[in-house]
């Protein structure tokens, strides 16, 4: 069975909720932010937020409330999920984790779901209420009580070290208390205990909001609802215990405006009602008063003073932050003050000292400070959502000062994968350009993996083989890269760049002075003591301002002026020095097979010891394990063998001998270093492979090393050059080759959770070598790089998984679609602008096809626009404004081909035209936009009129597929039969209407689909169509020979009749949001995807008799072949479905009815977020893993509504998928998460029609967390906690291992059989799969490199 591995490359960044309070400690204010299924706890440190912890829960967070009982010094969190679950959690100070106090659910089998879930907590923490169903309010009492009064229980049971809580159901709901591991003991009542649940029925069916009134002796709930006349009213209920039961007793009622949408509890029991343009205050005596607020909707509110509740912050839908101050008098009028502009907020929370957190779904989240005096805004600054009003109206001052920004990609409506540059191969990773942002903060986000190097300066220099950079001064110190860190207080520094060529050496340099902002100029040094008539083998700055140069003839010691101070050459064995390395005052040189250890003593070079090796030395290194300390070993690699080893310093005795596994290879670069807390020996070979050995020092003597983990990866095809450098405070290793990478340690790096060695690809190719520049003030944290005949200085990005670069757009330019054309290396975006938006110039003066007044034939509400951007700089090259009432809907890049010519570098645009008085589009267009890179010219070279909206377009075999309403059109580029009407015309400086004089866009064929086709995906000759309501349909393209050319009388074109044949469809009726074809497995992996046949279950004839006897499908029916076409479907209920087409070639040839043949379901999984787009591509460099070759193929990327970028990889090895599934189940059941919610319920497939278990998918976010566990916890998870006992007989274990894989089936809709792996219980992976813990760790570590 083929699994789909789903993992987040960039987790959801949209803020669901934000609250603040004393959660971690009673002496500080904490901020708690909910994003997706994660809870983040922050502490404010000066003007920034410091992350204290991040916890994932088994559910999509819907609501978070902070409350603090009177008997607690710290507060509690009430969290509610989207699947009717709640939990009360607290913070454990000692372990820095969240602890579940109470948990449960409020699911009603017979209830009708409301428009949204409402949550309210009593101001004295006596009770909280949740309303998720029409006319039902679930009330949960809290607080200390006697044991007899408790309406819940927790059964604790020892089951292999696993606590199994038992839910008690009450009124269709489930409530349970906190569980702890260990033996059962008496329950002590706490203020966080939940004493049961009451499902109370009210008359209000359409509830809009609710809150608990403050300063009331008994809990009172104010409910805002809409009656049958669509009028908004407020009714206040009192929660009272009547005859031993909780009831809601009506107290008072109010009539408010029809736009009232939010309730806020005020001091004294009053209730504040916020509407579209006004606010109303409802007093306890039944009176109310109103005042104008402004024509905008309130998104969220928070109190500046929580106890007094006199100042309220409002964030509205236009991106404004407003302060409402309430007077202390009974008749005092509130004052409203606008503070400034912010991103449209989804949650705001006041922390302390005037700092407010602005959480957003539409743009970046911010930490801002409220000022008492306004600050003037820079008029030259670009328009952004933080510093400008909606519509581009600029404000002069603001009371809001941004302090810290948090990148947010939500909502991702479309994305495309951009290559590194024209002509780059597939091995280089690309980047993702996403359309994100809404309202006043639209943007294009560039997301990429690895390390980008920003070029600072450079010059042409051909023939450089190696380079070193060193800084000389009076008081330098050893840096972690082996160079010299220079005291910044020294007034002058001299930076030298030593470039070695085939027959000579060039020494370049510049001088820096403190306090000088003058640009530095690199120049070649005058003739001095440096040897320049032969190549250099090593160079570095050493102590006391000296520098060391190693050449084939001698070892030199030079002063800071370049004068030669001392010269050393080997005496016992004269000859050319073949290899050398320098670190601090230590030098290692090799002459043939003899190694010399030399030290710098004052102004002399002294040979300390020598040793002879069996072969000539190919590479040598003398870096220290610990920064700032002298080296204790010398690493050497030998010519003509696969041997590498370590020599102890200073006696040069053999300390460790290693042989490179596999087919060996010639070592060309060797490095000893410490990454994280692990010592590594890195060996770069001449064929681009890299071996890394993890060395473990003994407890008695840390210099006595043994080999631990070993791994070999292929980075490139050229010899590797390994160089250590400091990247933003942490040590990393640059592996330079034709495809370079940066090695770094990921993780904490302590003894319990050792750091992992990770690889980050570099965005530059063909790098020969690098050298870190230490101590330079002009180029801090920079590298000197040699690549492609150029010597340049660049500054690398911080080493992290993903980098997000934002290109802000004007508020009127929300991007809807984006496409990338590799041939011209350009992007195209489409967006719709409002008629009230100013005509701000976005790029050149191209305003569209209508050169006159675009509103002369009417006044449309919106205008469509398409823009061409440079893929590297994101500069707008040309823009085109569409005709009135025409909106752009779809976009793609394609190449059109025909017998008489082809059209490349073309963008295909699909539009719709909705005229006044029409409910739906009756016509549209398919436009061909050709971008001429040389002339910087955008031309409309072809168009095709359609009878409806063009919802999707995609390139297909030199043609274009277009989804028009409920039809599928196949358009082609064909020789023109009649001349075009009119001649070419220029619309603006860069935009032309120039129909091709020889060719035109025509329809080859069409095929009716279902209701409305919104998405397309192609794989070979198959086409999958995603429908708005009718799930997906599958079609096959056929080109049949005929006696004449279709649509043309030219004899130059082949006679072909095109046809789209329906094959199968999915009858589940889901609302499709994205579809994609899954690439077929590699041929060498086909046999690994089928389980072995079991004789007693399969029978001699392939399993038909066994299938009938046991009531399960036969073996041949159970598994669709690996070559069957598979498709991924994302629906509006946040699920992912994998479908498979099992129709044979003969059935397709016979024309099987699409209504009779259905796509079978091979997998279902609940993601918890809506996928809007799925694209083929990868974010990482393809680094083959010899242990798991081509088993994990990250071929699909997706973007979600909440700003997540994910990777979907196919696991093309059945056994590895089975191991990962067992690991996933063990982690889900053995490792509790905050809330103690069920993982199976979280990932279960959910829709409005059915709920069923998930299968066929692997949760990468959960599985990769295995590497972050302590070794003891990893062993516990791997062994299944000792909960499963298997027979000791080997044949029975093997039989169970096979049976678990294929003998469990379940029926799904209609006649489709679900081929799934059984839902295992917790199991011992070692016994069931015959693998070791180290193997599982290597397997998971290989998966982390997919993103």
Descriptive notes:
By secondary structure, this protein is mainly beta. Helix content is about 5%, strand content about 50%. It is built from eleven helices and 97 strands. The chain has a six-stranded antiparallel β-sheet with strand order 6-7-8-9-16-15, with no helix packed on it. Strands 72-73-74-75-80-79 form a six-stranded mixed β-sheet, with no helix packed on it. Strands 90-91-92-1-95 form a five-stranded mixed β-sheet. The radius of gyration is 35 Å and the shape is globular. InterPro entries: Beta-prop_RSE1/DDB1/CPSF1_1st (IPR018846), Beta-prop_RSE1/DDB1/CPSF1_2nd (IPR058543), RSE1/DDB1/CFT1 (IPR050358), RSE1/DDB1/CPSF1_C (IPR004871), WD40/YVTN_repeat-like_dom_sf (IPR015943).
Number of strands: 97
Helix content: under 10%
Global Rg:
35 Å
The poorly predicted ranges are 145-189, 379-394, 421-427, 474-480, 484-490, 839-857, 1045-1050, 1094-1118, 1283-1320
The total of helices stands at 11
End-to-end distance, in Å? 23 Å
Report the biggest beta sheet as strand number plus sense, adding barrel if it closes: 6 strands, antiparallel
| Whole-number mean pLDDT | 81
SS-derived structural category: mainly beta
Major sheet strand order: 6-7-8-9-16-15
Overall 3D shape: globular
Strand content: over 45%
Pfam families: Beta-prop_RSE1_1st (PF10433), Beta-prop_RSE1_2nd (PF23726), CPSF_A (PF03178)
GO molecular function: nucleic acid binding
Main location: nucleus
Domain RSE1/DDB1/CPSF1 first beta-propeller: 14-403
């Amino acid at each position: 069975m083929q699994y789909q591995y789903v993992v987040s490359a960039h987790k959801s960044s949209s803020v669901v909720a934000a609250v603040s309070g004393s959660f971690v400690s009673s002496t500080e204010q904490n901020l708690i932010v909910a994003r997706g299924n994660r809870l983040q706890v922050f502490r404010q440190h000066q003007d920034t937020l410091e992350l204290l912890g991040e916890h994932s829960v088994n559910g999509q967070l819907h609501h978070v409330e902070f409350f603090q009982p009177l008997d607690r010094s710290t507060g509690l969190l009430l969290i509610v999920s989207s699947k009717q679950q709640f939990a009360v959690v607290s913070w454990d100070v000692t372990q820095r984790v969240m602890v579940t106090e109470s948990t449960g659910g409020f699911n009603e089998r017979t209830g009708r779901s409301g428009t949204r879930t409402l949550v309210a907590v009593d101001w004295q923490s006596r009770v909280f209420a949740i309303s998720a169903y029409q006319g039902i309010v679930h009330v949960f009492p809290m607080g200390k009580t006697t044991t007899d009064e408790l309406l819940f229980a927790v059964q604790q049971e020892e089951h292999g070290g696993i606590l199994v809580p038992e839910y008690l159901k009450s009124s269709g709901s489930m409530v349970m208390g906190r569980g702890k591991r260990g033996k059962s003991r008496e329950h002590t009542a706490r203020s966080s205990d939940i004493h049961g649940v009451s499902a109370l029925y009210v008359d209000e069916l359409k509830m809009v909001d609710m809150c608990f009134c403050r300063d009331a002796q008994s809990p009172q709930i104010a409910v805002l609802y809409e009656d049958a006349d669509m009028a908004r009213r407020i009714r206040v209920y009192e929660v009272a215990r009547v005859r031993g039961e909780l009831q809601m007793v009506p107290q008072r009622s109010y009539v408010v405006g029809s736009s009232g949408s939010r309730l806020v509890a005020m001091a004294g029991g009053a209730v504040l009602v916020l509407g579209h343009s006004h606010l109303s205050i409802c007093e306890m005596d039944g009176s109310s008063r109103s005042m104008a607020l402004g024509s905008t909707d309130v998104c969220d509110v928070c109190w500046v003073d929580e106890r007094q509740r006199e100042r309220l912050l409002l964030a509205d839908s236009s991106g404004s932050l407003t302060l409402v101050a309430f007077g202390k008098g009974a008749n005092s009028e509130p004052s409203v003050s606008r503070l400034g502009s912010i991103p449209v907020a989804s949650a705001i929370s006041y922390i302390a000292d005037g700092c407010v957190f602005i959480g957003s779904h539409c743009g970046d989240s911010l930490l801002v400070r409220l000022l008492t005096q306004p600050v003037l805004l820079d008029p030259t600054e670009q328009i952004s959502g933080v510093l400008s009003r909606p519509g581009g109206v600029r404000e002069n001052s603001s009371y809001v000062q941004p302090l810290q920004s948090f990148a947010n990609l939500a909502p991702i409506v479309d994305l495309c994968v951009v290559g590194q540059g024209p002509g780059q191969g597939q091995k280089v990773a690309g980047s993702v350009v996403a359309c994100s942002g809404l309202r006043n903060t639209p943007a294009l986000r560039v997301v990429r993996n690895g390390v980008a190097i920003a070029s600072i300066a450079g010059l042409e220099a051909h023939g450089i083989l190696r380079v070193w950079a060193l800084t000389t001064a009076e008081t330098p110190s050893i840096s972690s890269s082996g160079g010299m860190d220079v005291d910044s207080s020294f007034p002058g520094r001299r930076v030298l760049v030593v470039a070695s060529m085939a027959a000579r050496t060039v020494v370049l340099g510049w001088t820096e002075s403190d306090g000088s902002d003058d640009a530095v100029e690199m120049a070649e040094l005058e003739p001095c003591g440096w040897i320049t008539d032969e190549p250099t083998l090593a160079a570095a700055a050493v102590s006391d301002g000296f520098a060391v140069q190693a050449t084939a003839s001698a070892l030199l010691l030079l002063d800071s002026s370049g004068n030669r101070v001392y010269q050393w050459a080997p005496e016992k064995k004269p000859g050319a020095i073949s290899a050398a390395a320098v670190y601090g005052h230590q030098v290692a040189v090799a002459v043939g097979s003899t190694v010399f250890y030399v030290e710098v003593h004052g102004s002399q070079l002294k040979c300390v010891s020598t040793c002879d090796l069996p072969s000539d030395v190919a590479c040598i290194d003398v870096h220290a394990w610990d920064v700032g300390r002298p080296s204790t070993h010398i690493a050497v690699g030998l010519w003509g063998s696969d041997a590498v080893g370590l020599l102890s310093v200073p006696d040069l005795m053999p300390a460790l001998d290693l042989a490179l596994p596999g087919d060996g290879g010639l070592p060309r670069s060797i490095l000893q270093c410490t990454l994280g807390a692990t010592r590594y020996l890195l060996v770069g070979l001449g064929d681009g492979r890299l071996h890394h050995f993890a060395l473990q020092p003994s407890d008695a003597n840390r210099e006595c090393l043994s080999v631990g983990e070993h791994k070999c990866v292929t980075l490139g095809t050229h010899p590797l050059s390994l160089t250590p450098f400091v990247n933003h405070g942490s040590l990393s290793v640059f592996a330079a080759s034709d495809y370079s990478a940066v090695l770094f340690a990921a993780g904490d790096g302590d003894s319990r959770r050792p750091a992992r060695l990770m690889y980050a690809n570099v965005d530059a190719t063909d790098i020969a070598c690098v050298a870190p520049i230490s101590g330079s003030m002009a180029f801090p944290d920079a590298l000197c790089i040699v690549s492609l005949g150029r010597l340049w200085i660049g500054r690398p990005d911080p080493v992290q998984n993903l980098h997000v670069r934002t290109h802000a757009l004007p508020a009127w330019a929300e991007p809807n679609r984006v496409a990338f054309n590799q041939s011209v290396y350009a992007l195209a975006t489409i967006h719709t602008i409002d008629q009230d938006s100013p005509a701000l110039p976005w790029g050149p003066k191209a305003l569209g096809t209508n050169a006159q007044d675009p509103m002369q034939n009417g006044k449309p509400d919106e205008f469509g626009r398409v823009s061409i951007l440079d893929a590297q700089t994101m500069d707008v090259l040309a823009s085109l404004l569409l005709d009135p009432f025409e909106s752009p809907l779809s976009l793609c890049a394609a190449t059109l081909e025909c017998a008489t010519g082809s059209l490349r570098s073309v963008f295909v645009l699909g539009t719709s035209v909705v005229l006044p008085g029409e409910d739906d589009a009756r016509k549209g267009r398919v436009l061909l936009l050709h971008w001429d890179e040389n002339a910087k010219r955008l031309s409309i070279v072809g168009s095709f009129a359609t009878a409806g909206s063009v919802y999707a377009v995609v390139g297909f075999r030199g043609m274009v597929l277009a989804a028009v309403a409920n039809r599928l059109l196949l358009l082609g580029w064909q020789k023109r039969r009649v001349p075009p009407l009119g001649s070419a015309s220029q619309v603006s400086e860069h935009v032309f209407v120039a129909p091709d004089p020889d060719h035109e866009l025509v329809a080859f064929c069409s095929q009716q689909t279902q209701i409305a086709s919104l998405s397309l995906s192609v794989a070979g000759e198959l086409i999958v169509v995603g429908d708005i309501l009718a799930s997906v349909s599958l079609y096959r393209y056929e080109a049949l020979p005929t006696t004449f050319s279709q649509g043309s009388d030219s004899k130059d074109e082949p006679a072909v009749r095109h046809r789209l044949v329906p094959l199968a469809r999915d009858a589940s009726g889901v609302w499709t949001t994205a579809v994609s074809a899954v690439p077929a497995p590699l041929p060498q992996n086909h046999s690994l995807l089928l389980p072995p046949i079991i004789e007693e279950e399969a029978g001699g004839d392939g399993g038909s008799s066994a299938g009938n006897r046991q009531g399960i499908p036969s073996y041949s029916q159970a598994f669709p072949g690996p070559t069957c076409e598979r498709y991924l479907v994302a629906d509006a209920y946040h699920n992912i479905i994998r479908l498979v087409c099992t129709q044979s070639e003969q059935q397709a040839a016979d024309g099987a009815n699409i209504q009779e043949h259905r796509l079978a379901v091979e997998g279902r999984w609940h993601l918890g977020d809506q996928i809007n787009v799925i694209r083929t591509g990868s974010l990482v460099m393809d680094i083959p893993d010899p242990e798991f070759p081509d088993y994990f193929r990250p071929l699909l990327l997706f973007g979600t509504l909440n700003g997540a970028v994910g990777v979907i990889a196919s696991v093309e090895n059945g056994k590895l998928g089975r191991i990962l599934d067992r690991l996933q189940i063990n982690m889900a059941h053995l490792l509790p998460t905050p809330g103690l919610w069920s993982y199976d319920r979280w990932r279960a497939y959910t829709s409005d029609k059915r709920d069923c278990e998930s299968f066929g998918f692997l949760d990468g976010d959960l599985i990769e967390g295995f590497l972050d566990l302590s070794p003891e916890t990893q062993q516990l998870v791997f062994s299944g906690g000792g909960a499963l006992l298997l027979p000791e007989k080997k044949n029975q274990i093997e039989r169970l291992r096979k049976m678990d894989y294929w003998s469990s089936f379940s029926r799904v809709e209609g006649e489709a059989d679900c081929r799934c792996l059984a839902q295992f219980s917790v199991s011992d992976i070692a016994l069931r799969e015959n693998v070791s813990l180290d193997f599982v760790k290597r397997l998971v570590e290989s998966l982390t490199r997919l993103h």
